Amino acid sequence: MVEAVKDRDYKRVKYFYIALLMGLSVLILDQVTKYLTYVYLPPVFRYDYSYPYGGIGVFKDFGGIEFSLNHMANFGAAWGILGDYQIPLLVLRIILIFALLVYFSKLSRLSLLQLPVALIISGAIGNVIDYFFYGHVIDMFHFILWGYDFPIFNVADMAITTGIGLMFFFSWFTD
Description:
Blueprint: H1 2-40, E1 43-44, E2 56-62, E3 65-74, H2 86-105, H3 114-134, E4 137-145, E5 148-149, H4 155-173
C-alpha cells in the first residue's frame, strides 16, 4: 500500500516537472524567435502583396502551402482583435495568467491537465512580455493554406492553441 502511494506521488511530481519544463522551453523558444524577428526582419504593418509579403519566403507552393517569416506587430489579441484596447487587454491577460497559475497549482490530482495548462500559461506570459519589451506582440509565422491567407502568429499562439486543444481532448476522452 505504501509503495503504491509512493509510486503515485512520484508520477504526480514527474508530470508536474515535465509540464513545468515544457512550459519554460516554450517560453524561451517564443522569446528567442521574437527577439530574432525583431532584430533581423523589418516590421510589416500592412500586408505587402508581393511575395513573400514583406518577409522571408521559406517555401512557395509546397503541396498548395506557402510559408514565410514576417515581422508583424499585433496590438490586440488573436488576429489583432481589440487592438484599440491595449491596456485593458494587458490587465485581462495578467489576471488570466494568475487565475491559470492558481488552477495549475490545484491540479495535483488531475496530472493530465498540467501540460495543457502549462502551455497556455507560458504562451500568455510570452505575449505579455512582448508588451513590456516591444509595446506590442510580435508575430512571425505566415502560412497560406491552399489559397487561404492564414493570420500571422507566433510560438506563444501555438502553445496557447495546443494547450486549449489538449484540454478539450483530455476532458473529452478521460474521466
